[in-house]
Amino acid sequence: SDDIAVRYCGKLFAAHGATVRRLAAPAQADIAAHAHAAWLDDGKQIVPSLEPTLQDADLVIAGQTPAAIAATVRALGPNKPLLLAITWFGMTGPYANWRGSDALIQAMSGIAYAFGPVAGPPTIPQGHAPQIIGGATALIAAIAALRGRANGHPTARVDLSILEAALCFGEYASPSAFQGGPASTRRGINRFMPTYPQTIYRAADGWIGVTALTPPQWQALCDLAGIPELGRDPAYATSDQRLAAADAVDARLAPAFLKRPAGEWLAEGQARRIPLGPVPTLEELLQTPHWRERGSFARIAATPSFEGPAMPFRLKPRGTSTTPATPPAKGSGPLAGLRVLDLSMGWSGPLAGRHFADLGADVIKVEGTAHIDWWRGWDGPTDADPPAYELRANFNAMNRNKRGITLDLNSKAGLDLARRLAARADLLIENYAPGVLDRLGLSAAVLAEVNPNLVYISMGAFGSAGPWSGFRAYGSTTEQASGMAFVNGEADWPPCLQHIAYGDPIAGIYAAVAASIALHARPRLGGITIDLSQVECLFQLNAAAITAQSATGRAPARTGTRRAASWLTSVVACAGDEQWLAVDVLPADADAFRAAVAAPTDATQDATRDEPDRRPATVVR
């Protein structure tokens, strides 16, 4: 396919050693579009025909319509490689034959609804995030299916819905709303329920990202800003109170941050354990010493050459020991027989572990007795039966299909039990603050002595190496640092966030990608330590803008919902309360769109039978 989700999935395979063949893509006259296309196809073999090689393939990636999948099935013939079918809405269901686009998926997945001015309209983010997410999620499923086929679990085809993959962004709010929690609303630019301040302030020489969730963080932030009395004012004690009084909070904090350069705020804030984040333009992002030291951007051999995001994780084999393939085990999924130790909390790590649990692995979630997973809520244990922390819908959704255990990791007995679990695990996932597990004696190096064949993934916000490796962060911090704040929104807006914790689900998906690749390579390479940077994961979703900046020397213009490649992209109001419609029309479909909006429906004909002069509403770009 020439579509992005299929091409990106192939890129992930090619980047890790697979031989990936594809037909030459149509030439792109626009330099920015050409650069993104070259980044997507980097490392692949471009061939004149795929037909001779289909029968020898281990995997065929096809899409992104049911018709394209059907044509691929016919071409495969009797020797059936695994077929990975990527479509916008899946192969079945009422939307199966709908036409899709990144803009429509952003609208349908719910991410656009809370982004934008209070009065609306909702703002659709730029870029190709849904297709990138779809391609990455497809790789997780494909490697699981290939492993299952090798172990006697028959899988002929994997169907991947881009819309369903993009629903990961709603996994904080949707289960909560199902349980009676608050409905999604727009609260304005850089304001998302339930956290404040979670915003971006202007500094003396640029911008600084601020997130202060806990009481200690809020008090430390106010001390740093030179207004300690604000941090101790009971009127602003909780995050909910601060969000309700966001204008008053901004009136005190915004002038304070203007007094010093962003770099000084960042260094001193992080030293005080406050999750402050850099907010670079795309030009500044490509020059940031931390990312240069980590090799976060790689030169793409195109004409002209440019830089694009490298893989957001580093696989570090620890030795020459090898592990035989996991023997077939009882279970319904392709990963039956695989054991995962999930030492993570919140959203990112647990989502990575859930991918494995959903595919049949035995996932054991470890929580500390003193600090249970914060997605259970901030309240301590209660005498209720069952206690409230056992009923949180979003926690239970994120940790479905897992087994659970609580351990006192501050005691010798608890640590001994954790090491015994690691000795029998294939994969360990952790997203603790930098250095915590090292101090507890559960580092990758220590556990490698217990289990030389363990795959161990750390999910630091800025990675485990580099000048910023120790920085504390939330999902909002990673978005602030990714360059996306200068890509989305209108030109006259300040740099802006599109989501309360955009980086969390994306990091979870890429952790599952990295672990899947490492487990596939383990029989050849032995135990592997994985260094993943959550910020770098967002570079993948922002690749179109980053490659455009590198190839042209200019960042794409901020155009709100409007998209350069479309004849019309808009969110328009319809009848009713908060009834918004997303419209995305390619240039080739302009005439069909004009005809569609000019032709009254049966309902409109009935309503206007006595009013022949009524005209349909005009859609304004």
User: Overall mean pLDDT score?
Assistant: 91
Helicity, in percent?
25-40%
**What oligomeric state do the depicted chains represent?**
single chain
**Silhouette:** globular
> Which residue ranges are poorly predicted, with pLDDT under 50 across at least 5 consecutive positions?
603-621
The gyration radius over C-alpha positions equals 25 Å
How far is the N terminus from the C terminus?
A: 31 Å
Descriptive account of the structure:
- There is one protein chain.
- With 621 residues, this protein is α/β, with parallel strands linked by helices.
- The longest helix has 23 residues, at 503-525.
- Helix 2 crosses helix 23 (543-552), helix 5 packs parallel to helix 21 (503-525) and helix 21 (503-525) crosses helix 22.
- Helix 3 links the parallel strand 3 (59-64) and strand 4 (82-87).
Compact overview of the structure:
The chain is of the alpha/beta class and 621 residues long. The protein is 37% helix and 15% strand.
Topology:
Blueprint: H1 4-15, E1 21-23, H2 31-40, E2 45-47, E3 59-64, H3 66-76, E4 82-87, H4 102-108, H5 129-150, E5 157-161, H6 162-166, H7 173-178, E6 198-202, E7 207-211, H8 215-224, H9 228-231, H10 239-244, H11 246-257, H12 262-271, E8 276-278, H13 282-287, H14 289-294, E9 297-300, E10 306-309, E11 313-317, E12 339-343, H15 348-358, E13 362-368, H16 393-398, E14 403-407, H17 412-423, E15 427-430, H18 436-440, H19 444-450, E16 455-458, H20 475-481, H21 503-525, E17 528-532, H22 534-541, H23 543-552, E18 568-573, E19 580-585, H24 590-598, H25 602-607
Parallel strand pairs: 1-2, 3-4, 4-5, 12-13, 12-15, 13-14, 15-16, 16-17
Antiparallel strand pairs: 6-7, 7-8, 9-10, 11-17, 18-19
Helix pairs in contact: 1-5, 2-23, 5-21, 15-21, 21-22
